[in-house]
Write a structure and sequence with these properties.
191 residues, mainly alpha, 8 helices
């Protein structure tokens, strides 16, 4: 039974990675066709429920696609203060969901892979993340090196502690949240 569960975990993890990766590729292919104004109007139609609907859409949507259009839309819809609050909540929830899924379905498999003698350096770095990693995660969050969800998956299968991941995510995402939401707020002054 344990062997069957491990096999199922691997397959779920592989499918999850494929979904996230293909959705990022699709988004990048069709990003020009996505209208921030249409997204804004659709969310605005929910009236007083708009913040909750926005947070839910942001949380689920950013599991699969980049968050920048959502952050700019938050600034347009809700202004800087509330837009920032809603993107922080949605981004945090999305990050924790992806991290938790990766940890649940992929961590054990990746740990087994990192035992290979040819991956010793990566394995040593992974062990180092277990006792720290806050600064590493913050830098990776702030630098536009890779899509956030890929980083969420990598951190999920790493040995980084959940508390360190949460703190590093909140601190590391702050600059991009502030800039993108402010950009959306700034746009409302001209349109």
């Amino acid at each position: 039974m344990n062997s069957k569960w491990q096999t199922l975990q691997k397959w779920i993890f592989v499918v999850f990675i494929c979904l996230v990766t293909s959705s990022i590729v699709l988004y990048l292919s069709f990003a020009d066709e996505i209208s921030v104004e249409t997204l804004r109007q659709n969310i605005k139609n929910f009236g007083i429920w708009s913040p909750i609907i926005f947070i839910a859409i942001y949380t689920l949507g950013t599991i699969f696609i980049p968050s920048t259009p959502f952050m700019a839309t938050a600034g347009i819809l809700f202004g800087f203060k509330y837009g920032l609050l809603y993107t922080v909540i949605g981004g945090f929830l999305s990050s924790v969901i992806v991290f938790s899924l990766a940890r649940l379905f992929g961590k054990q498999w990746v740990d087994n892979i990192l035992e290979n003698k040819y991956l010793k350096m990566v394995g040593n770095y992974n062990k180092r993340l277990e006792s720290g990693g806050l600064l590493d995660l913050m830098v990776l969050r702030m630098a536009p090196i890779m899509p956030f969800n890929i980083l969420n998956i990598i951190m999920g299968v790493s040995r980084i502690k959940m508390e360190t991941y949460i703190l590093g995510t909140l601190l590391g995402l702050a600059p991009s949240n502030v800039l993108s939401v402010y950009f959306g707020t700034f746009l409302t002054k001209f349109f």
